[in-house]
C-alpha cells in the first residue's frame, strides 16, 4: 500500500501543476476537469478517502494527507483496476514475454522487431489515455505513426528528448488534443499545417528542431481557431529558399496570445494584419531576415526592440531606424512622441500624488502631536491610558486565540 500512496502522491503533484498551468491561461474552459488515475489496490483507494491513517510511517501519513486533499479538491479521481488489467506493470516490475505482450495490447501498443532482433513497442495511443508527459527522458527513435481515430488524448508532451523523423500525420485523429509540445528534439520535417484542423488545440510548441521549408497554411480562416501559444522558434524554416515570408494567414490568429518565430530564416515584411490582433501578449520575430516597416496599432505598440532585433531590414517604431520618405516616418515619430508624452504624464501624476500624500501625512502628524500636548498639559491622561490598556488587551487575546488554533491543528494532525 505504501508504494501506491507514493505513486499517487507523485502523479498528483504533476496533475496539480498541470491544472494550475491551465488555470493561468485566460481563455481555457473553467473549471478544469479532474484527471482519473487507476489503482489496483482497493485498500489503498478506501484508505485514500479515509480521514484517519493508522500507519506508523510519518512520510506515508504526509502522502496520505496530500492524496486525500487532491481527491477532495477534485484535482484527481481514483478508479479501481484489476491487477491483471494493470497496463503499468511493465514500468514497475519484470514480466514474462506473455505479460509484456498482454500489457502492450492493453495500451494499444504493437510490438515491432528491430534490426537487431530486439522487441520494441510503438503504435496506437490508448483510447482512454488523456495525458502523456515524457519530457526530458532522453528518448530516441521516431514518434508513433498510428494515433488511433477517436483517441482521448488531450495533452502530449515529449519535450527535451532526442526524437527524430517526421511528425506523424495520424495526429489528425486526436481531435481532443489541446496541448502538443514536441520542442527541443531532432525532428526533421516541414511545417505540419494540417495540425491547424485540430479543433481544440491551444498550445503548439515545435521549437528547437530541424523543421525546414516554407511555413505554409491552407489560407482558411478556420485554421488554429483555439490556439493560444504558438512557438516555432529556432528551426530552419525558409533556409536555402529564395523567398518565404510569414504567412498572411497568421494575421487571422485572433486568439493567439504568444507567437514566437525567432531564430529562423524568414524573409519579407511583417503582415499588416498583425496590427489588428488584440490578444498578443508575447511576440518574438527576432533573428530572421525580415524587412520593411513594422505595422502600427493595438498590441504592436506595447512591444520593445528585442521583439524585432536581428532583422537589419526592419524599420519603424520601436526601432530607431525610420521608414524612409514613404510617410511612415511621421507616423512612427508621432507614435513615439505620444508614448513619451504618456510616460511624462504618468511621471507628473506620481510626483503630484506623493506631494499630496506627504502634505496629508504632515498635517495629520501635527494634529496628533497637538492633541497629545493638550492632554499632557491639562493632566487629563486617563482617557489615553484607558485606550492604550484596551488596545493591549485586544492584542494579547488575539495572540492567545492564534496559539490555541495552532495547538488544536497540531493535535489533529498527530491523531491522523
UniProtKB/TrEMBL annotation:
Keywords noted in UniProt: Cell membrane, Glycoprotein, Leucine-rich repeat, Membrane, Receptor, Repeat, Signal, Transmembrane, Transmembrane helix
Biased composition (Basic and acidic residues): 95-104
Transmembrane segments: 358-376
One cellular component term from this protein's GO annotations in UniProt: plasma membrane
Domain of life of the organism encoding this protein: Eukaryota
Region feature Disordered, mapped onto this chain: 89-115
Gene3D superfamilies: Ribonuclease Inhibitor
InterPro entries (UniProt xref): Leu-rich_rpt, LRR_dom_sf
Main subcellular localisation: membrane
Cytoplasm keyword on record: no
Compartmental location: Cell membrane
UniProt biased composition (Polar residues): 105-115
Membrane topology: Single-pass type I membrane protein
Protein's UniProt keywords contain Protease: no
Family, similarity comment: Belongs to the RLP family.
Protein name: Leucine-rich repeat-containing N-terminal plant-type domain-containing protein
Organism from which the protein derives: Capsicum baccatum
Organism taxonomic ancestry: Eukaryota, Viridiplantae, Streptophyta, Embryophyta, Tracheophyta
Amino acid at each position: 500500500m505504501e508504494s501506491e500512496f507514493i505513486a499517487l502522491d507523485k502523479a498528483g503533484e504533476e496533475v496539480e501543476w498541470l491544472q494550475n498551468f491551465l488555470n493561468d491561461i485566460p481563455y481555457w474552459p473553467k473549471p478544469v476537469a479532474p484527471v482519473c488515475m487507476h489503482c489496483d489496490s482497493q485498500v489503498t483507494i478506501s484508505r485514500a478517502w479515509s480521514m484517519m491513517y493508522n500507519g506508523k510511517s510519518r512520510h506515508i501519513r504526509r502522502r496520505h494527507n496530500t492524496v486525500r486533499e487532491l481527491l477532495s479538491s477534485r484535482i484527481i479521481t481514483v478508479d479501481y483496476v484489476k491487477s491483471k488489467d494493470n497496463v503499468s506493470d511493465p514500468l514497475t516490475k519484470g514480466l514474462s514475454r506473455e505479460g509484456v505482450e498482454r500489457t502492450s495490447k492493453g495500451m494499444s501498443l504493437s510490438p515491432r522487431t528491430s534490426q537487431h532482433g530486439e522487441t520494441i513497442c510503438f503504435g496506437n495511443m490508448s483510447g482512454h489515455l488523456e495525458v502523456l508527459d515524457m519530457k526530458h527522458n532522453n528518448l530516441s527513435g521516431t514518434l508513433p505513426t498510428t494515433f488511433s481515430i477517436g483517441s482521448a488524448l488531450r495533452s502530449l508532451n515529449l519535450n527535451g528528448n532526442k526524437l527524430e523523423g517526421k511528425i506523424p500525420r495520424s495526429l489528425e485523429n486526436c481531435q481532443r488534443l489541446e496541448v502538443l509540445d514536441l520542442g527541443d528534439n531532432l525532428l526533421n520535417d516541414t511545417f505540419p499545417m494540417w495540425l491547424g484542423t485540430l479543433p481544440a488545440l491551444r498550445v503548439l510548441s515545435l521549437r528547437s528542431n530541424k523543421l525546414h521549408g516554407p511555413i505554409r497554411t491552407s489560407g482558411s480562416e478556420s485554421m488554429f481557431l483555439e490556439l493560444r501559444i504558438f512557438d516555432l522558434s529556432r528551426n530552419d524554416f525558409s533556409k536555402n529558399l529564395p523567398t518565404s515570408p510569414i504567412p498572411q494567414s497568421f494575421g487571422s490568429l485572433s486568439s493567439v496570445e504568444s507567437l514566437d518565430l525567432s531564430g529562423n530564416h524568414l524573409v519579407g515584411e511583417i503582415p499588416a494584419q498583425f496590427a489588428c490582433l488584440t490578444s498578443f501578449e508575447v511576440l518574438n520575430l527576432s533573428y530572421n531576415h525580415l524587412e520593411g516597416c513594422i505595422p502600427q496599432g493595438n498590441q504592436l505598440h506595447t512591444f520593445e526592440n528585442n521583439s524585432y532585433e536581428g532583422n537589419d531590414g526592419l524599420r519603424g517604431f520601436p526601432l530607431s531606424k525610420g521608414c524612409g520618405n514613404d510617410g511612415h516616418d511621421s507616423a512612427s515619430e508621432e507614435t513615439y512622441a505620444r508614448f513619451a508624452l504618456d510616460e511624462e504624464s504618468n511621471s507628473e501624476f506620481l510626483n503630484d500624488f506623493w506631494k499630496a500624500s506627504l502634505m496629508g501625512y504632515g498635517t495629520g502628524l501635527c494634529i496628533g502631536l497637538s492633541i497629545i500636548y493638550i492632554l499632557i498639559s491639562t493632566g487629563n491622561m486617563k482617557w489615553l491610558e484607558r485606550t492604550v490598556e484596551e488596545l493591549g488587551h485586544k492584542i494579547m487575546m488575539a495572540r492567545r486565540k492564534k496559539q490555541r488554533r495552532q495547538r488544536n491543528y497540531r493535535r489533529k494532525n498527530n491523531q491522523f
